[in-house]
Amino acid sequence: MSNKILVVDDETEIADLIEVYLKNENYTVFKFYTAQEALNCIETTPIDLAILDIMLPDIDGFTLCKKIREHHTYPIIMLTAKDAETDKITGLTLGADDYITKPFRPLEMIARVKSQLRRYQKYNPAHSDTGATSSAASEDNLVCGSLTMNIKAHTCFLGETPLVLTPTEFSILRILLENTGNVVSSEDLFHKIWQDEYYSKSNNTITVHIRHLREKMGDSMDKPRFIKTIWGGGYKIES
C-alpha cells in the first residue's frame, strides 16, 4: 500500500510540482490549495505525512500544523520562505518535524519525505511485530528513572503520564536514552536522525526540539531532571 501524503500550498505551480514528484515515487497525494480543504480531508482520510505551506489564503500553515497535532503524530514538513529563521523555529515549536526552504530542489524534498516516513514507520505500532518474544519486548524498553520508552509500541511515559511526542521528538529522546550517561553532540543527532546528504541545518533545529521535549516533560534547562545541556558538547541523560 502506498503512503498517503497531504500537500497544502496555494501556489498552484509549487503544489503541482510536489504532486508530480511524489507520484513518481508511487505515493498517493491529496493536494489542496486551502487549509480548510485540507482539514476536511484529514477528518475522513488516514494520512502518513503532511507538507504544509505557511502562507495560505484562509488559515496559515502554523495554525493548520497545530490543529493536526491535536489528534495526529505523523510527520509534518513545513514550507518556509528563504532565510525565514523565525518561521522555521515557530513551525518546529508547534510540532513540525522538518522544514523545506523555498525555492527547493525536488529531489531534496523527496529525500526529506522518505527520511521522515522511514523513521515514523519504523517506530509506529502498526508496523511492529506482534509475535515478539518476552525477551525482545524487554529489549524494546528504555528506562531512566520515571521515564519509560517502548520502542516498538512507540510509547513514552513519565511516571504514569503518557508523553505525546512527534516522530522527531521521539527519535531524539530515544537516542539520548540509548546513550544514557554519555554526551550526544548536535552533529551526531543530525546524523542519526537525518541521514541525507541534502540536510544542512543550524543548531536551532535540535535546540527547538529539545526545548519542546523539556516542556512536555516538565523539565528545566537550569535544573534539569532528565535532559542536560553540555555547553560546547551536546546533550545527555543521566541515570
Description:
The chain has nine helices and eleven strands. The termini are far apart. The chain is an alpha/beta fold. About 5% of the residues have low confidence. Helix 4 runs parallel beside helix 9. 33% of the residues are buried.
Question: Summary?
Answer:
The protein has 239 residues and is α/β, with parallel strands linked by helices. Helices cover 41% and strands 19% of the residues.
Strand and helix map with partners:
Elements: E1 4-8, H1 12-24, E2 28-32, H2 35-44, E3 49-53, H3 61-69, E4 76-80, H4 85-93, E5 98-101, H5 106-123, H6 134-139, E6 141-144, E7 147-150, E8 155-158, E9 161-162, H7 167-178, H8 186-193, H9 204-217, E10 227-230, E11 234-237
Parallel strand pairs: 1-2, 1-3, 3-4, 4-5
Antiparallel strand pairs: 6-7, 7-8, 8-9, 10-11
Helix pairs in contact: 1-5, 4-9, 7-9
